[in-house]
Amino acid sequence: MEKDGSIGVPFAKDNIKALIMDMFLAATDTAAATMTWAMTELVRHPEILKEVQREVREVAKGKTHITEDDAAQMHYMKNVIKETLRVHTPGPLLIPHQSRDATKLQGYDVPAKTRVIVNAWAIARDPTVWEEPDKFQPKRFENSSRDFKGNDFEYLPFGAGRRICPGIAFANPTMELPLANLLYHFDWTLPNGEVPDVEEGLGIVAYKKSPLRVIATPYRV
To answer: What are the pLDDT digits (tens) for 161-177?
Structure first.
């Protein structure tokens, strides 16, 4: 591609490696943050933790580990992940864009080449769209077509359109399988009845500001 110029721009091996690295880093960073937040919210809401563990253990009953086929049947666990991505959007501000042409948006003049930043966190907490938006309620996604694949503009944890997060396909199983196995193999409690805080740290990815401390007790399969 670099030699014949068939794509119109220089495209060397270093460019390809950088793109692949972007995909893996984007997926692993968001997955790690989301896993931490999911466990935080579950131990803060024991009734939700029990319900999702019941589903996971019924689907994978008697198995030593959970597969992608098993995870595909864990609908409530998927809703837990969706709600985690809503309440704790991994990338609160989406990647900056720039307006190509001058336009008008809801009465505002937007000149050409204006820097545009979408606040995905605020959209996911909008009370005109979400009922009780500050509450962690996975059941809000039951019988709902809302998904994080970029088709619902009120829910954009990974962005949308051609600039959607390139690691989304990798991030999904990276979140589902580890979470399902953690819930399947262990019971989770808090040390000394602690209640973990939900303060977010500063950065491109919204990690939990303080470490999550939990007690894992092996569950007899």
So the answer is: 777 776 677 777 889 99
